[in-house]
TrEMBL record:
Organism field: Perkinsus marinus (strain ATCC 50983 / TXsc)
GO biological-process terms attached to the record: phosphocreatine biosynthetic process
Domain Phosphagen kinase N-terminal: 1-38
Region (Disordered): 124-152
GO MF entries: ATP binding; creatine kinase activity
Protein name: Creatine kinase B-type, putative
Gene Ontology CC annotation, any one: extracellular space
Length: 323
């Protein structure tokens, strides 16, 4: 039932309860996937490429003035278990067990600790677990929005949920949150390439451990990596670059410019234009490889910085903007 009083962002409106949902309800799912991802027909095929050496070497912000932080996240699911909307109590515990075992195999520079949420009894640990009130913004909190709660991801909360932090606290893995797994890498400043490389290595190690346990990630030749939410299909990759570009933001055609360079922007653009920031990231998740998406963000953000510098000097950039 539609709650017209609920103030929510635009969402897909459907979730997959298991991998079979994509084939059993293909007529419905394929139509929605095609529309949501702006053109991905049933005959289309997705390709994946997580090779960090192929990423653009362009520096987004050589002066370290305009980019405040970088965040890259990748969603993954483990084959053989239902997805969060319909996963059973025991299955969720099995996902956590497999994940924790794989996380223990990380190389020294990625190693850290896993903490279940306070109240979870699925995993014994020397500490008292992770209290939601002490989590960082990226960490797990009880779902409160109507769409998330109605999808079933909050069942049996907080059992078998937890967060892995590496020792330098720039790598996190959320276990049994909205999806089975979410790998997150963060850096201060211009760090998209570093985040991408870190996640690439973490995922390679994680998959190797799963293979040793006769398990693998959910993947399909047509849709790429699978998840419960259709906006995480394909790459499951979400890149966010926090930028301070007040002159660009102040332009009346800024939203059009962002769309024309194939990106999206979010954040507070009100108030003093010389102090506000915004987050710029990828639009595409499905239909382009991870390397292609990362390149689009890097090159697009670099152009935004160049235009911001030109505006600071009083130069007209109209002829340089995409039409």
């Amino acid at each position: 039932m539609d709650n017209i009083s609920a103030q929510v962002d635009k969402q897909v409106g459907i979730v997959a309860g298991d991998v079979e949902s994509y084939w059993t309800f293909a007529e419905l799912f394929d139509t929605i996937i095609d529309r949501w991802h702006c053109g991905f027909p049933p005959h289309a095929k997705h390709t994946n490429d997580l090779d960090p050496y192929k990423i653009s070497k362009t520096q987004i912000d050589p002066t370290a003035k305009y980019v405040l932080s970088s965040r890259v996240s990748i969603v993954r699911s483990i084959r053989g278990y239902r997805l969060p909307p319909s996963i059973s109590f025991q299955e969720r515990r099995d996902v956590e067990r497999l994940a924790v075992q794989a996380l223990k195999t990380f190389p020294i520079h990625l190693r850290g600790y896993y903490r279940p949420l306070v109240g979870s009894r699925s995993f014994s640990t020397e500490n008292n677990g992770t209290d939601e009130t002490h989590n960082k913004e990226e960490d797990i909190t009880h779902p409160e929005s109507g769409p998330l709660l109605s999808s079933g991801v909050g069942r049996h909360w907080p059992d078998a949920r937890g967060v892995f932090h590496n020792d330098t606290d720039d790598l996190r893995v959320l276990v049994n949150n909205v999806e089975h797994l979410e790998f997150i890498s963060t850096r201060k400043g211009d760090g998209v390439r570093a985040c991408f490389a870190e996640l690439s290595e973490a995922l390679r190690t994680f998959e190797a451990s799963l293979a040793s346990q006769n398990r693998e990630l959910m993947h399909n030749d047509r849709l790429g990596y699978l998840s419960s939410h259709l906006d995480n299909l394909g790459t499951g990759l979400h890149i966010s670059v926090e930028m301070r570009i007040p002159n660009m933001i102040g332009r009346p055609d800024f939203e059009r410019i962002i769309r024309r360079i194939g990106l999206k922007a979010a954040g507070n653009t009100q108030g003093d234009k010389f102090h506000h920031t915004l987050f710029v990231g990828n639009l595409d998740v499905l239909g382009r490889s991870e390397v292609e998406i990362a390149d689009a963000v890097i090159e697009g953000c670099a152009r935004l910085v160049e235009w911001e510098q030109a505006l600071e000097k009083g130069r007209d950039i109209t002829s340089e903007l995409p039409r």
